[in-house]
Amino acid sequence: MKNGQIMQAAIIEINNNQQLVSYNQQAGELISSNLLILNQTFNYHKVFSLDNSVNLDTQDDTIIVLNSQYFLLQKINESFKITFVLQPVEYLKKRLSKINVVGNHAFDIFADQSQTMQKLIAQAKAFSMQREPLLITGETGTGKDLLASACHQYSPRGDQTFLGLNCAAMPDDVVESELYGHALGAYPGALESKKGFFEQANGGSVLLDGIDEMSFQMQTKLLRFINDGYFRRVGDDNEVYVDVRIICATKVDLAELVEQGKFRKDLYYRLNVLSLNLPSLQERQDDIAPLTHIFIDEFAHKQGIKPPTVNQDVIPYLTHYTWPGNVRQLKNVLYSALAQLTSSQLTVKDIVLPAIASAQVSWINNIENKTLDEMTKQFEKEVLKSLYIEYPSSRKLAKRLGVSHTSIANKLRDYGIREEDFC
């Protein structure tokens, strides 16, 4: 092995009679050939320079030195053989370093020019490091699944499995089988046992999207699992324990469902320990510009073309729209425009938005769990924003609405409606 080269794991197998049955190329390069004789007794204490008092069966791993290098030695006992695995510590350190790099950049996929998103991401990073369940809420299209994935990658579990299940409109037997697995013969046609998501993601995280649509029966079983980590596969009497972090996502207000008797109160309080609420795109308008450039660059990269330039009128045009479909809708609108673009510059004329009438009433989609006063203020803000395009000053707008200039000026300030946004 050349100096500075990092070798792969060396693997050595012996039978129950302590006789060497096989070894890979890496083991052959690492250990002297007179110590690796097939069908002969393999004295691992001697080969690995271990004291006779060392019992590898009672410890998960051991650090040893071979050829002036540190190795992690693991002994794996099976019914018919024993396997020794040696991995260079330097290799493991570099691999962990790469994992940490990926984790540290897990949230870079989000545009966070707005203070709202900056605050959310800081909160998400803190919550990612915990073991408790994580609840992510937000309107359709805000990116709840992306946030869940980023939280997993940033967490200490980031190098483990991340799986997601959409619970919406799924029958109980399907949900149960997917999450908990089933034993041989549990169902007609179940010719073999199957591991569910929780077993497959042991040590990692599982996202349950649309948790609000999970039945009471499945909610009860999920609560038991969250409490102690134990469950039974469908059709099996044996309990299985796994260490999985549960991340739940929903677009509705679970507290409201609890009040309506449509969601278990005890499960809600168990899930609502660490909660993140993704803002709508309308609540993070400062992010529309960076998101636009991200999606344009993403589209160009996929198509293998040079990204078009963006006309100066495009961002204000996009910012004035209400985006009821949030970030997903913005991406779809831009992709549609770019797919039909025939020039090297994207202009307002290339972008097709749904009718203004639809946009003006989109606020109705965001009134869940709000008081009458909050809904009234939300509607008032939408009216002012819509009319300000045609009456771009507080005096003109006051005259149009038949109220005082001072009153309109105060409302524009309170709602963050600025003249420069409409220029």
TrEMBL record:
GO terms for biological process: regulation of DNA-templated transcription. InterPro entries: AAA+_ATPase (IPR003593), AAA_lid_NorR (IPR058031), Homeodomain-like_sf (IPR009057), HTH_TyrR (IPR030828), P-loop_NTPase (IPR027417), Sigma_54_int (IPR002078), Sigma_54_int_dom_ATP-bd_1 (IPR025662), Sigma_54_int_dom_CS (IPR025944). SMART domains: AAA. Residues 110-339 form the Sigma-54 factor interaction domain. It comes from Gilliamella apicola. This is HTH-type transcriptional regulatory protein TyrR. One of its GO terms (molecular function) is ATP binding. It is found in: Cytoplasm. Keywords: Aromatic hydrocarbons catabolism, ATP-binding, Cytoplasm, DNA-binding, Nucleotide-binding, Repressor, Transcription, Transcription regulation. GO terms for cellular component: cytoplasm.
